[in-house]
Design a protein that fits this description.
There is one protein chain. It is built from nine helices and eleven strands. By secondary structure, the chain is of the alpha/beta class. It has a single domain, classed as Spore Coat Polysaccharide Biosynthesis Protein SpsA, Chain A (Alpha-Beta Complex). It is globular and about 55 Å long. The two termini are 24 Å apart.
């Protein structure tokens, strides 16, 4: 990998076989390779990480990666979210920064990941616990869709809150505010990730079903980095067809 100013950086791809909306999606064919293998290879090909791992509770997914000369870690416990799954895997690793790459997003933008990692290289005092991505939303249906997590930040681009509700509420429609969608790619300091693993879920996270709220509820700082990269999350068979078409054109 490229020089990283002495930070040891790894990518972790949490992968469940039984996705609620599209079971088995990570093993679906995406133009000659499975979705999870496409994602793994895309992360590897960025050349930004010392190591890339898939972390999974599924023998099928584990064997798919290992049989194709990749690195996979089997979870030993049941986990409610990707952060917990990753935390178990990295607990005894010598690592500074852990990047959570979504297994169902095989289109990875190297430039966006690079910007996330720059947050930590430019933070020698270690004031930032996490970095994540946001992208502008213009369409009203997209803004009101509860499947799109919205984020608001302060003037320094530190996250104030995440919600499935349109945030901020448009009581004044002429203010010119920009709505931002949260893209669920995170870069964590290992210490913050291990704190998350040991801390219980509180009411706001439980209500919204957004795991990064836990970090805010316990006082962690999340730096949001703006990107215009949209990517594609494969949550439905229709999303898979869109991804196949995108791969055909690339």
């Amino acid at each position: 990998m490229e020089n990283n100013n002495s930070l040891r950086i790894i990518a972790m791809i949490p992968a469940r076989f039984e996705a609620s909306r599209f079971p088995g999606k990570l093993m679906e064919d995406l133009n000659g390779k499975t979705v999870i293998r496409r994602t793994y290879e895309a992360a590897l090909n960025t050349n930004l990480f010392d190591e890339v791992y898939v972390v999974t509770d599924s023998d099928i997914i584990h064997n798919e990666i290992v049989s194709n000369h990749g690195k996979s870690i089997k979870s030993t416990k049941e986990h409610e979210c990707g952060s917990d799954r990753i935390a178990e895997a990295v607990m005894n690793m010598d690592v500074d920064i852990v990047v959570n790459v979504q297994g169902d997003e095989p289109l990875i933008d190297e430039e966006s990941l690079r910007k996330l990692l720059e947050v930590f290289r430019n933070d020698p005092e270690k004031t930032i616990d996490l970095a994540s991505l946001k992208t502008p939303m213009m369409d009203s249906d997209e803004i009101s869709n509860p499947n799109n997590v919205k984020v608001i930040t302060n003037k320094d681009n530190l996250a104030l809150y995440f919600s499935r509700f349109p945030l901020p509420y448009p009581r004044e429609t002429t203010s010119g505010v920009t709505y931002f969608k949260h893209i669920g790619i995170y870069a964590f300091r290992k210490e913050a990730l291990m704190d998350f693993y040991s801390l219980p879920m509180l009411e706001l996270e439980a209500t919204e079903k957004i795991e990064c709220i836990r970090y805010l509820e316990y006082g962690k700082s999340i730096k949001m980095v703006e990107t215009n990269f949209k990517g594609i999350g494969i949550d439905t068979p229709e999303d898979l067809e869109k991804a196949r078409k995108l791969f055909d054109t690339n």
